[in-house]
Amino acid sequence: MFVAAVRLVHFRSYDDTTIDFRPGLNVIVGENASGKTNLLEGAYFALRAQSPRTRRDDKLISWGESFTRVELDLGPDTEAGGAHRVEVGYAPGQGKRVQFDGSEVATLEELRHRTTVFIFVPESLLLIKGSPARRRAHLDNFAGALDRGYEAAWRDLHAVLRQRNAQLVHVREGAAPMSLDPWDTRLAQVACELSRRRREIVTRLDDHFARIAALIAPADARWRLSLVSQMTEGADEAAFTATLKARRDRDVRRGLTLVGPHRDDLCFADVGGRPATASAGRDLRLFGSQGEQRTAVLALLLAEQAFAADQTGELGTLFLDDVMSELDDARRRRLVSLLAVSGQALITTTNRQYFTEDELASVRIVELPLGAAHVQIAAEASAVREGSALGAGADDVPSG
User: Fold this and answer.
1) Predicted pLDDT at 81
2) CA-CA to 20 of 20 to 30 Å: which in 75, 152, 276, 304?
3) pLDDT tens-digit profile of 336-350?
4) The pTM of the whole model exceeds 0.90
5) 120 CB contacts (<8 Å, ≥6 apart)?
6) Do the beta carbons of residue 303 and residue 205 sit within 8 Å?
7) Of the candidates 265, 259, 266, 267, which has an alpha carbon nearest to the alpha carbon of residue 191?
8) Domains of the chain, start order
9) Strand 223-228 to strand 265-270: parallel, antiparallel, or no bridges (unpaired)?
10) Pairing between β-strand 344-349 and β-strand 317-321 as defined by DSSP bridges
11) DSSP state string for 232-287
C-alpha cells in the first residue's frame, strides 16, 4: 500500500488541508517553517495514532482550536489489493478515536499491524544520541509489528519484571528470599525467549544496515549495527537463573532487576576492517559527527524497510525530513537511486538543487506553502467526503 492522500484538520500549522501523493518518490519543497515536517508528522500520526516528535497529543492541535483530526487514504500496490482509509481524531478530555475503513481500532498495536511506515524527523537523531531505553523501544516497536511472537515475548518479560520487582521490595521488607525462586525461574524463561528473538532480528537487520550504509555513509566507512546485551548468545535458562540468584542481594537493595534483556542497547559503530562487535570500532553515538549520526539513522530506517519487505512482501512508506542536506552530491545520487526502488518515499527539502533535473522530472513535487488554487480544490474534495465523528465538518469535535 502507499499513501494516496492525507487531510490535516487543525493539525499543527494546518487548518484544513488535503494533499495527494503517488507511488514512488514524492518531493515536498518549501522554506523553513512552511509546514514540511508537520505534514510528515500528520501522515505518520494517521498510521500510528501517535506522534514521532512528542508524547503530548495536545501539542498537535492548532493554536486556538479544540481538536485535531487526520484522514489518510491508502492506495493499493496492485490491482488485486484494496484501498483503505484511516482516520484519527483527538480532543483533550475526550481521548483519541481511531478508525480503519470505518471500523473502530481498539489498540495502537492493532493499528501498527495494519501498515508499515518509517519516518525520519529531527527528533529521530535521539535514536543515536538518546538513551538505551529509546533505542530498545524503537527496536521493539519495529520487531513487534512484524512478529507477534516477539511482541508476546516482550509483553511477557515486562509482566514478569513487574512481579519480580514487587517481590524484591517485599524481600527487602522482610519476606523470605526463597520467595523469589518462582519469579527467577519464570523470568529466565521469558528473558531467554526474548533475547533469542531480539538477537536474531538485530543480526538480520545488520546485514541490510551494512549494505545500505556502504552506499550513503562517508567514504571508507564500514558501519555495523550490533546488540549490546548482558545476555550472552545462546544463554540458557539454567545459566540465567544462576545469574539472577548470584545478583539477588544487589537486586533486593535496589528493589529492581538489574540484569536481563530489559537492559539491552543497540550500538552503531564504524568498525573499519575489524570484526563487527560492540567493543570494536568507533561508536557513532559518542564519536560520530552530526552528519554521520543523521546518516546512520537514515541507513537504519532503510534497513528496516528492506527487512520488513523480506518478511511481508511490502516495502511500506518512507517519510524523510531534510535528509539531503548532510550528504554530498555523490551520496545524494545514490540515495535517490535507492529510493527509486524502495516503494513510496515522501522526502522534504528546502532546496530543489539537491535533485537533478532528470530526477525531478519523474517525481511528484509538492510546493509549500500551497497556493490558493490547491486549497480550493482540496476544500471541494473534502466537502464530498463521507461524514462521521472523525470525518465531519471542521467545526465538529470527535467523540471518544
Assistant:
1) 61
2) 304
3) 999 988 889 999 999
4) no
5) 297, 298, 301, 318, 319, 320, 321, 323
6) yes
7) 259
8) 1-116+315-400 (3.40.50.300), 123-313 (1.20.1050.90)
9) antiparallel
10) parallel
11) -TT--HHHHHHHHHHTHHHHHHHTS--SSGGG-EEEEEE-TTS---TTSSEEHHHH
